[in-house]
Amino acid sequence: MAPSSLKLEPATVEDVPALTEVWFAAFTDPELRRLWPDTPGVRKWWDDANHHDLLNKPFQRYIKVIDPENLDANGRPRIAAYAKWDLSMPEDRGRRYPPWADDMPGEVCDVFFQREENERHRVMGDEKHYYLDTVATHPDYQRRGCGSMLVQWGCKLADENSVGAYVDASKDGAPLYEKCGFVDESEPGSGDIASMARRFITALANELTAVEAMLDEEHGSPLNFIQHERDDNCYTWGRMGVHNVVIASLPEGRYGLVSAATTAYSLLSSLPHLRIGLMVGIGAGIPKLQTNIDIRLGDVVVSQPTDQSSGVFQYDLGKKRQDGTFQHVGSLAPPPTVLLTGLKKLKAKRRRKGSELPYILEEMLRRSPKLAEPDDDDPAFVYQGSHNDRLFESSGPHVEMTAEKNTAAGLSKSTQTPSVENRNAEEAGLETGNCVLCDRAGEVTRKERRSTDPVVHYDIIASGNSVMENSLCRDEISRQIDDKCICFEMEAAGLMNTFPCQVIRGICDYADSHKNNRWQNYAAATAAAFSRELLHVIDAVDVSKSPNMKQIVDRMLENISQLTSDTKEANQGLQQLNDNKLSENIKNWLSPCDLWETHNSTLERRQDGTGNWFLDSDSYASWKENSKFSVWVHGKPGCGKTTLCSTIIDDDPATLRRELNALPDDLANTYAAILKRIPKRSEEQSIRLLQFLAFSERPLRVKEAVDLLAVELKEKPGFNPNNRMPIPEEITGYCSGLVVIGYTDEHRGDMEIQLAHATVKEYLISDRLSQDVSAHFATSVAKAATSITEVCLANLSEVKLVSPPNIEDLNFYKDKDAVYYLNVRPPWYHYKPFRGVALDGFIKMRYPFAQYAADYWMRHAFHANTSQVETQVKKFIDCEIFHRLYEHSAENSSALYRMAQEGLTWAIELLLEKDAALLNAREDESLLAAAIQHRHDNTFHVLLARGAKVDRTVIVCASSRGDEELVRPLIGKVTAANAWKWCSKAAKAACAEGHVEILHMILEKCEEANIMCCIEGEWICDAFKGGHNAVVMALLDSPPHATFYAQSWRSACENGLCGLVEILLAKDTDADAAGRRTEALSIATDKGHVEIVKLLLKNGVGIGKAVFLRPSGTAKKF
């Protein structure tokens, strides 16, 4: 039962900011915050989304729990919790949320919610049901029954309508829903880790290192991950692009088919819902120059199925015949379709745009710079030089280097190593391979490549249990298998029949006796880079549709006892890998340094007397005497500049304390000091920029800000492109320290400019400005709105309506800008609570600020000083661009409609003075409804006085608002001909919202139309459901009608409203009441409303009479 102090009420548009606040307070889980970061942009996105749904989605019910004993800042009862129930059918739903905000991970959100929608459809299908979209409780009210109240409200509604209910529940929230009758329908293994649908398996430590270096993010284990008792593996979790991945590695020192199968079985015992796999690592290449297959060390080989093969061939599985020949038997499963489709897409993309492997490898080294350096005998993960890539004839065996042969040959270290000219630092750090004594006559001469970038080959991969170091055996097996076999490796055949797998191998040797370890790290890196490139073209939604590993787990459980010893060894090896400190070192290296800690540690490590030469120098002495000048200490990295600076700080603590004491003691003085530093010549631009950033309706892109500063307002108002800053990024120089630039659009890398902190706006509009600062920089809502409106109109007035640009024009802009502005993106990308102005793509390309100006000038003008902007608005109305912006089309709203939305009454009168025919020119727009919905009452009365059309929509909106001053003049427009059509919906809206006075006005006006007999029963149920008892009694006290009571009884019993039945028992007492009550008993029995049946029987309804029941499931309860 809900606490007496808390109440349930429908939420309204006015509650939107409070709902957003409750949501962010309730949900602090890191995964949710990754989807919805707590930023002003995302909070505005939530406000807009809820505002839009409340106004435009009648099938969504927002219910709030309020605390009447505690008021918020606006004097309204505080909202403790809220829920959103969705009552829609599949054909009504459309997109669940508006397009994502700029600082949300759009692709990740798309995958997340598509997966939720797929699961919902799997469980509920097309069956009508109520969906609990959102339920959030503020932490101050948790464990007080708020969640139960909201869930039970929707469940009761579902029961009354005999439909099911569905909710996406977290593990923590499941007990609440189970108490309300929900049953867990999720598939085994699903839950918080259900998105972990991709995995990698590697065999060697360097392969694991390479794959981990490709991760965009490294995660901890999911909170609800429960490792199977027979799974001894260790895992690395993370994200690569939009895909969540889990990486498992074979035990240290173990490789081959059995070890690979052991790791796979163990992995699937804990993660049976995984869908596809990548086997990533190193392999041996088989060059076939006679067929133009020129494989080099560092290249990548990818398994590709053919008509006769799955892409992987186990060459050592078969029968040894009497005649000495070997017959291969068995077949392996091919990779899953989603991987093969992705491989096809990647091939097409690489053919058009080229390979991304060089850039991926470069990014890997940027993220993990330690990999670019050798570690003792372990080579760097970089290209090892063409002079170290030597291919010998099959008949040319390797000659091992020994100390005796070294001395006998008279070779020194310098003669063994080729010239290091044109070699990079990584190559120079390692000696050449040990083929110094091999016969150079047997070395194959190959054509020099134009680039050292790795080449990708697609063909058959041979897999077996032994290391291939014999070139003659290599060639013989290659001929037996398939002439298309171009790679040897040792693990893939152990995986292919266990779970779907794409094999990717970096080539580190040629499967001959000349093999060594020099190329293994680089080959592992190129294979991992290709896996990253492949995942980038695979849609996460396609992966989610692939079959999971349920059947594989069943097969695995039958054989798991045979693998116990191997899994223990695997655990030991992976535990050692887990102790590797490489990731921690990289994290520390990338993190910003602690300056105080650096200073102290430098002082501790320096030798006595370090830096005294500088302290004794004339330059330092002159600087101390006249600190207006600077001393430039410069030198190479690592030469001791930091140590020298620490020495200076330690030498002169008095100056340091004096400078620290001179710093401002609070934010107000800090901001004042910054403003005082702004030069006089830049003051106007700085004020304008600060006004826009403080009061703009959405974040501004740097290009938009550059254009708004290029507007002249004084001598000759207008926008001049020649006034644009040549280097847009330097715009922060106008208000250095108060504004910053950020890259918030992940799809385009667009730069946005914003205030450095929310307190900057608070300071500018406060009374804390000192007199000298206030004279120049003080602002207010009206002052800022006036300036912004003037800039918007001046910019729009100069827009030239031109034909599409030629090639030279497009070349002037960066490609990404041209693509964006030419509307490649959907038109709804920047979601607004109203329909945005549809600007031509080329106009947006030439005038970046024009879109913002067109969308929001009216909103700013509403808050501006009318006398200052009225003249400019009059001129703008006469411009050609004004008529283009608001021309009649499906994409655009009319100027009058937008003015009604924004409450721009004086502008409406200006426009109608020029052309009165505009008032009711568009049938698809209701000016009065727009003014009512946005609470611009003055605009409403002006439009009504001028003759704006009144229809049913207008009266319904006004009745729902409950404002008598709005409804009274509209009621006067009702005639006998349209009374039923107009007033029935209006009366229903008034009842549902509890506006009893509005109901009386409608009933008085429509008394002669006698419309009550048709629908009054539905009205009373709506009022009762909303808890509006005054409306209920007003309806019952109106002149009784037999059909009214009949409808009321029917609605009350169908909807299970026991309290309303009690009221009807007391009120409906005429001669025909007995028949209506008996029918009500039949309806209540048929619907299964036990309490109503008991109440009616208790009051003698049906005693001595036969009550006929329709054959339904609910009637079986009786």
Protein model, in words:
The longest helix has 19 residues. The chain is globular and about 115 Å long. A hairpin with a 2-residue loop joins strand 8 and strand 9. The protein is α/β, with parallel strands linked by helices and 1118 residues long. It has 51 helices and 22 strands. 46% of the residues lie in helices and 11% in strands. The strands form five sheets. Strands 1-2-3-4-5 form a five-stranded mixed beta sheet. Strands 10-16-15-11-17 form a five-stranded mixed barrel, surrounded by four helices. The chain has a three-stranded antiparallel beta sheet with strand order 18-22-21. The chain folds into five domains: 173 residues, Gcn5-related N-acetyltransferase (GNAT) (Aminopeptidase, 3-Layer(aba) Sandwich); 322 residues, Rossmann fold; 68 residues, no CATH class; 226 residues, no CATH class; 79 residues, Serine Threonine Protein Phosphatase 5, Tetratricopeptide repeat, CATH 1.25.40.
